[in-house]
């Protein structure tokens, strides 16, 4: 499986993104009722924000992943924890499919983490998934995340978790 990432284009990727973020399996993305225009507006705002980047992940050439990288000192977690230099926030979404492949999502999160740690400035990845999203907690643990504590965000109760480069490399058994 080959994974590569390209910058998301809010207009060109609008149909694809809309189908992904409004799918029932993307409930934790909290965009179930979003229109195509809502999606374009949201991702255009992200593209214009210097502290946020969004990417489409291509698996063997086919779009299959939405990855967001953000600076938690400026977005999402402001005032909820003490950011360190090199902290990078991350969200990811695997495209819905009618033919799931066992182990695919774990390979995806491993590729996402490898991509984030490919930047030498990234020291630690920070995530804040919904406390009730047990599936993503297991995936996070598999790639080295360690939960710190529950936090209350405006839209959800979240599990603040961290993964250093060393924790990731130890969890997946290879150098990032």
From TrEMBL:
<comment type="function">
    <text>Acyltransferase required for the direct transfer of medium- to long-chain fatty acyl moieties from a carrier protein (MbtL) on to the epsilon-amino group of lysine residue in the mycobactin core.</text>
</comment>
<dbReference type="InterPro" id="IPR016181">
    <property type="entry name" value="Acyl_CoA_acyltransferase"/>
</dbReference>
<feature type="domain" description="Acyltransferase MbtK/IucB-like conserved">
    <location>
        <begin position="6"/>
        <end position="53"/>
    </location>
</feature>
<dbReference type="InterPro" id="IPR019432">
    <property type="entry name" value="Acyltransferase_MbtK/IucB-like"/>
</dbReference>
<protein>
    <recommendedName>
        <fullName>Lysine N-acyltransferase MbtK</fullName>
    </recommendedName>
</protein>
<dbReference type="Pfam" id="PF13523">
    <property type="entry name" value="Acetyltransf_8"/>
</dbReference>
<comment type="pathway">
    <text>Siderophore biosynthesis; mycobactin biosynthesis.</text>
</comment>
């Amino acid at each position: 499986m080959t994974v590569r990432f390209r910058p998301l284009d809010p207009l060109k990727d609008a149909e694809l993104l809309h189908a992904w973020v409004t799918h029932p399996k993307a409930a934790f993305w909290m965009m179930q009722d979003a229109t195509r225009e809502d999606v374009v507006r949201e991702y255009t705002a992200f593209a214009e924000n210097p502290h946020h980047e969004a990417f489409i992940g291509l698996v063997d050439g086919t779009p299959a992943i939405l990855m967001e990288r953000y600076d938690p000192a400026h977005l999402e977690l402001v005032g909820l924890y003490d950011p360190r230099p090199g902290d990078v926030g991350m969200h990811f979404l695997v495209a819905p499919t009618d033919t799931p492949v066992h182990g695919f999502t774990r390979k995806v999160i491993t590729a996402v983490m490898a991509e984030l740690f490919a930047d030498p400035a990234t020291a630690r990845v920070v995530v804040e998934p919904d406390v009730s999203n047990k599936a993503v907690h297991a995936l996070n643990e598999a790639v080295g995340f360690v939960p710190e504590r529950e936090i209350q965000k405006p839209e959800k109760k979240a599990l603040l978790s961290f993964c250093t480069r060393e924790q990731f490399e130890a969890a997946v058994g290879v150098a990032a």
